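Quick start: what a row looks like.
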Amino acid sequence: MQLRKRLFAQLWQPLEEELFTIEKQVNNIGITEVCDFVDSSYGEIERREQGQVARPFAEVSAAVTFAGINTGDHGKLFQSLQDQLLERGHHVALLESQYCNTLPNLQRSLLEQMFNSIYADTDAGPSAFGGTKTVTYDLGLLQLWWANAACSGKKAVVVLQDFEGFAPTVVDDFIRIVGGYCDAVPIVLVLGLATSYECVHQSLTKASISMLNVERFNLQRSKQCIDTAIHRLFVQGRAPLCFGAEAYKSLLDQFLLYSFSIAGFVKKLKYAAMDFFYAQPLSVLASMLAPNAAVSACPVRLNSDQVELIRMQRSVQRFLERRATENGGNAYVRQALSDDDFFQDTVLLQMARALVMYRRSYCLGIDAIVEIQSMAPEAIQKPVRTLHYYGVGQQFDDCTHWKTLLAVVRRMKTSEMTLLLQKLRRLVDGAADVDWDLVADGTHIHELIQGAAELLANPDGSAIPDVLDNSEPKKRTRTRTEMEHRPFLLFDKGASDAQLNALEKCCEAVEAMLRACLISYHDVALNEVFYYRHSFLLDTAFSAQPRAAVQMALGKSHYYVSCDCCAVTDAEDHGSDDEAQRITPTMHDTSIAYRLHQECGRLINLYDWHASFSSVVERESQRTAPSQGEIQARFMRAVEEMRFLGFIKSTQRKTDHVVRLTWGM
């Protein structure tokens, strides 16, 4: 267990750094645009300093940035923006609504951060400006200090991180005040939005909006970040742990359907990695597939139990069965099943190498799909995260998207096919280290694509590559069946029969390449070890179900309330169903009311409900029976708690009834 803990720490740290680098690179695109806007704003002040004529009126430069609906990631995003602005020499104040509920508090926070920024650059403290401690915070003080600090060419950037959280009147008054000082102090506003750009028009008055020179920017690039992370970690195989179809869908749905949170995605990925190293005894093999480690030998010596556990995997059994059909395979399989050292030093190494070759060929297949999509209509293009789900979740013949893209390839003209083959050749040349004998059953993709390109370049030549079918060219026909199988006849009417035959051979070569690269991971040895499948665990940990938890707590309160009187109920729970559903007076009042409301229909009569509640409560034997007033008060409190939890609601049809809202459990 300690070894697996160390392996987790060694393998997760580079993955976390890789994810942080990806997020920083993707976010820097939008942050750089905002910084460039800040640099280019307030050209009138610079022209006035140079003696040129400026405009007769001044506008407050404002960058309206859409940061996405997930406010949890806004802190890191705007902190990166602040760091880049400081690197460019500007003075930045990052304001949050929770500390700026009034205009004096906003100005105080603004000036304190600005003065700290000025002191950091000029090494001038308060004594440099008279040595008096100012209590009243006003932007006139900022104007005085800005002139003495020699901030020519710099900007004072005020970032409102959560614009929706600020009081509209506070922001409106602040913009009016800033408008009076923007001639002397180049103040740039950065408004961070989580909803939409319309929020600015809904919150501010027309007079304030007319004073702003607004530019829109989009800082929400979480989808691009996730696509890049999935391509590098899972498609390119930089992460030793991959996800099966169901677990990958759970990982992706949490991001797309709930929060768009990069931090949440990283937490879920880390949780899956922790569970992999904790629950999988064969996770010690993960270092064999580390990105910077060559598959040369098993990093740790396995005991006999671990070796036997590897032999019991279905994918390993299929691997040995295939080897048994080869020449001399029986002796190889016999030694692999009887000799632990031979299995660990030879067989395990071969299976790990085959898995690495499969990942590289799979990356080539996904990249080829991306190139084909770039030449297809935009309506059928899919992001990398969806392509990877198709790759791990479906067989090649069962995926409708692969069939759609192959139909696009069959409709290509000669010029388009030539361009596609050039792109595919560059991809194949970049994957020259792939051993195709271990992946595609001997199908050499490099020779296949090169032969198709040569045939398309010289369709009338007599030499046809051996990797392609050397059948005679088909004659040009116009039957309906022929159009279905050879649709390029409709799109390349000026081509000869030899060129059409070459197009058909190229289509077959592209399809053969995709079939060889996009095989299912279930056909690869050791997929049970390196492909995480515990989707239920991820859903339970990160997809909370509060209604089910509340219903379980009210229906079986003895599991949550530890007391002697409920121990009898706990014992009865192991008996018949009638005994398990019996309502006892020792239960909590809300639990009693919940149990009773489950026996009713859609409309619940409050009088009957109260009578049933009283009949249960009056059976208390540990103390004196409660009075009717106490029972009524306890019943009213239980009903109000159930109304607050959303189990019932009032109705206008019958004033002495309530409506039941939940069913089941």
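That is the whole record. Residues 2-40 form the longest helix (39 residues). Strands lie at 60-66, 91-95, 156-160, 187-193, 212-218, 242-243, 531-532, 603-605, 648-650, 657-660.
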